[in-house]
Design a protein that fits this description.
Layout: H1 3-6, H2 26-40, E1 45-50, H3 56-65, E2 71-76, H4 83-93, H5 103-119, E3 123-128, H6 136-146, E4 156-162, H7 165-170, H8 176-180, E5 184-188, H9 193-209, H10 219-227, H11 231-247, H12 255-265, E6 300-306, E7 309-316, E8 319-324, E9 331-332, E10 343-347, E11 352-356, E12 363-365, E13 368-374, E14 380-383, E15 386-392, E16 403-405
Parallel strand pairs: 1-4, 1-5, 2-3, 3-4, 8-9
Antiparallel strand pairs: 6-7, 6-15, 8-10, 10-11, 11-13, 12-13, 12-14, 13-16, 14-15
Helix pairs in contact: 4-5, 10-11, 10-12, 11-12
């Protein structure tokens, strides 16, 4: 095998999902943030779709490795099942032996389990992979499960992941009640050529290449030409090309190796394949709140200020923007007092609302901690050590300010902020305890 000649510690392009090899392109980072939102919100119900080999399962495995200890997870991968089989599979994941139960008993057992977990302070998450294979009857059972609630809130979070056919099923008239409960829908497109380059380099680095260049620069356009940026196809072609380089006694993959691999695989150019209409990162299916369209006029502006000076400005258009410490956010605030995904702003044609994403330090309006707040012109939102100043570009406001305040949280002075768990210290701001 080529590990020794290329001085690698493991195979870089295996097809099995491995979280340590996950490359977070911007769209993969967004999809993962939406998965994480199921933990933040009591009505968390997210649908992630993508073509075969787009990285959905690897994304799920990476997400599961970071699940907090107070979350109970049921993960279902076998989806060509009856409604009773599905309910039994869910209970097996929760530690039951339900195979002699009738349907009414299955449902009652699940409902009781969910309420018990809620009473114990635990969250319950159901993840269904390959969800495009679910029958309409099973999807209806999922709808009924999603409706289980206490007097205050829903008790089951749900992630459905599958191929694009899942969207077609969900849009069927008979599933309109289920579709209305979905908080977010996101489509994972193929990698761009730039992202594909980064993806290959990332996997090589994880496998032990470090900063060594094992693929000649001119091969990347050829790889993209035959893979279209589909991660699974990229893995197959790169692995075969490295074998070709090894048998030719080369320590770098060249164009000749790529062409030899293409010939061996008997591939045609990706553009000549029969592919679905949605294939690229820029052709994503609509979300429940779409990403802002840069061609549309801004309905508002968000000024980011610290120490009395404005350091950033973000136009607000119809859609959703996420604000946090890491680079995968729409607005990055690089401060250890800001959580990785701290809050989000959703703009519609007649309103703009900011919502806390279960951050460590929260968001404050007029010295009061809020979970959700409808923004009015001139509102100042405190996030860590930064101020977010909202400027409304519309002449007429159609909503008055409404605020859901976190119970029992009041402040007469700016709140003490704490470093989010795992935060990396940056800048010269003094650390606080």
């Amino acid at each position: 095998m080529y590990l020794d000649p290329f001085k690698l510690k493991e195979l870089p392009f295996r097809l099995s999902p491995d979280p340590q090899f996950l490359y977070l392109s911007k769209q993969h980072a967004r999809a993962k943030a939406y998965m994480e939102s199921t933990i933040w919100f009591t009505d968390g119900f997210v649908v992630i779709t993508g073509e075969i080999g787009s990285g959905k399962t690897t994304l799920i495995e990476s997400f599961l490795k970071e699940i907090p200890a107070d979350v109970v997870v049921a993960q279902i991968n076998q989806t060509q099942v009856s409604a009773i089989d599905f309910l039994q599979a869910v209970l097996v994941q929760f530690g039951f032996s339900p195979f002699k139960m009738k349907k009414a008993e299955l449902i009652a057992t699940i409902n009781n389990f969910l309420v018990e977990q809620y009473a114990a302070g635990r969250k319950v998450l159901l993840i269904v992979d390959e969800a495009q294979n679910l029958s309409m009857r099973v999807l209806e059972e999922i709808r009924l499960l999603s409706g289980v609630e206490t007097t205050k809130e829903k008790v089951l979070r749900i992630i459905l992941a599958g191929q694009p056919e899942l969207n077609e099923k969900l849009d069927a008239p008979e599933l309109v009640q289920l579709t209305q409960r979905i908080r977010l829908r996101f489509h994972l497109g193929n990698l761009s050529q730039g992202d594909m380059h980064g993806y290959i380099q990332h996997r090589l680095e994880v496998a032990g290449a470090g900063d060594r260049q094992l693929f000649a620069e001119e091969v990347f356009a050829e790889i993209f030409r035959y893979t279209g940026g589909v991660p699974r196809l990229v893995n197959t072609l790169c692995d075969t090309a490295m074998m070709a380089a090894y048998t030719s006694d080369r320590r770098m993959v060249t164009l000749a190796d790529i062409r030899s691999a293409v010939e061996e695989l008997q591939w045609v150019e990706y553009s000549a394949r029969a592919v679905p209409s949605v294939t690229s990162a820029t052709e994503q299916a609509p979300l429940s709140e779409p990403a802002p369209d840069p061609s549309q006029p801004a309905l508002g502006r968000l000024l980011v200020a610290t120490d009395g000076r404005t350091v950033q400005e973000l136009p607000l258009r119809v859609g959703r923007v996420i604000i946090g410490r890491t680079s995968d956010n729409d607005l990055q605030i690089d401060s250890r007092f800001v959580s990785r995904h701290h809050c989000q702003i959703t703009t519609t044609s007649n309103s703009c609302v900011i919502e806390d994403l279960n951050s460590t330090n929260g968001i404050y309006v007029k010295s009061k901690r809020v979970r959700r707040h409808y923004l009015n012109d001139g509102d100042v939102v405190l996030i860590g050590k930064h101020e977010l100043i909202y400027v409304d570009e519309r002449l007429v406001r159609t909503r008055t300010s409404l605020t859901d305040t976190a119970p029992g949280v009041h402040a007469m002075h700016p709140p003490e902020v704490r470093e989010p768990e795992g935060a990396v210290k940056v800048g010269l701001e003094p650390a606080t305890k």
